Amino acid sequence: MGRRLPTAKMRARRRNGKAKLKRPRNKTARAPTTPLASPALQATQPPLVDASASESEAKPHNRRPDAPSALVWPPAAVFRTRNGAPGTSPEMAGDRAAALVRIAAVGVLLALCSSPAAVVVVSARKVGQTCALDRNCAAGLHCETCVANGNVRPRCTRVVPVGPQTKARDLPFNRYAWLTTHNSFARLGQRSQTGVAIATPWSQQDTVTEQLNRGVRGLMLDMYDFRNDIWLCHSYGGICQNFTAFQPAVNVLREVERFLSRNRAEVVTIFVEDYVESPMGLTRVLNASGLARYLLPVWRMPKAGGDWPLLSDMVRDGHRLLVFTSKAAKEAAEGIAYEWRYVVENQYGTKGMVKGTCRNRAESAAMDDLSRSLVLVNYFRDLPAFPEACKDNSAPLMDALAACHAKSGNRWANYIAVDFYRRSDRGGAAAATDKANGGLICGCGSISACNANGTCTPHHGRTPKGIFNASSDAAAWRPPPALQWQRLVLLPAVLAVLLRL
């Protein structure tokens, strides 16, 4: 059977079917196509613009009009200049300048607040002013409360006395006063090096090195034979126990040696409450610590009163250590001075703290015995009391100093011994030492009032404005009173500038 030829109607139907197959599908996801046009027509028509892009250009960062530009990211919109190079719009250039001003202002603020000089300007409080931390107070002061004296708010109190050699170096040694600590080795919270808990009172807050660095120049040490060595103990009955032993004496004596080797113009005195029975025991421990070479020979000490060697001569000759023992025989046997041959000393403990009195202790000559050139004033309780020490070391200490001056033939104390020397409600033991030095060196109410010619400046009873032994040049600088408002003015002013930019 032959093939059937398509009719005209069938050919027309096929052509219509092929046309339907070639028609493009209408997909909504595909971008609409633009019919090609001639170049002349394209030149007359505006270019196509994406709606989302135009909206983004109208609102480049979708922020509030009043929002600071420094908070926008990215900070500047980059575009193409006429020659095709990247650039920044004028508006964004202004924003960048403002941001740079902010950064500079913050940098200045941080520099001012972190520099040592700024700390002094902001925080240098004087004696008696309220504080929160030690660094709020000027150099030589620390921040502490004295609840026993009704001072519940922390205040800046004196710690470091004025160095008397800063006023005069060429006076006899008995014309100077020195801050002294009782039981200098019995530090608060210290454990025995025997490994046993201490069952005896503590008397100080600092190590011996810290005491020396803060102006203490007299140390009271109790020495005992213990464990085939010489130990520092705070014991009873002349016997050292595991629970009353602190550490070998050579450890503390080496601290003194290091201080003297690093401070070649300083003189230190050690009072030994001597329970050492071993032959040449003190001599051995002094040799082992390296202190023997600094010892002032006994032959240079006045035996019947009179003046001691000049301080400057003692420093020049290297005799910068005085050691006194409570055992008379050791002066001849070991060349260590017997204390009460050279010193008068008042009654220690609670009995010696009766107001208006200053009687001598049993071992000492009378307080007004002028055959002893040095005067030691004790002012501490039988049992050390940390809370009460701030009260004891304040006005009562000044009263005791004046009473002993009158009872000692109008001689000011050369040594002032206290517990917890850092504690007081104002000037404390440091101010008492300054008062004694003022009387001994120039007859003034305080050493700060002594002039080079031996006269007193007006208002000679004032507490010294400048504190010696400052740790840095910045700490030694004192700003004018107007700059004390820096804390209240500086930060708000900088914040106001930042908010206005």
TrEMBL record:
One of its GO terms (biological process) is lipid metabolic process. This is Phospholipase C. GO terms for molecular function: phosphoric diester hydrolase activity. PANTHER family: PLC-LIKE PHOSPHODIESTERASES SUPERFAMILY PROTEIN (PTHR13593:SF89), PTHR13593. Residues 56-66 have a biased composition (Basic and acidic residues). InterPro entries: PI-PLC_domain (IPR051057), PLC-like_Pdiesterase_TIM-brl (IPR017946). Residues 1-74 are annotated as: Disordered. Pfam families: PI-PLC_cat (PF26178). Residues 10-28 have a biased composition (Basic residues).
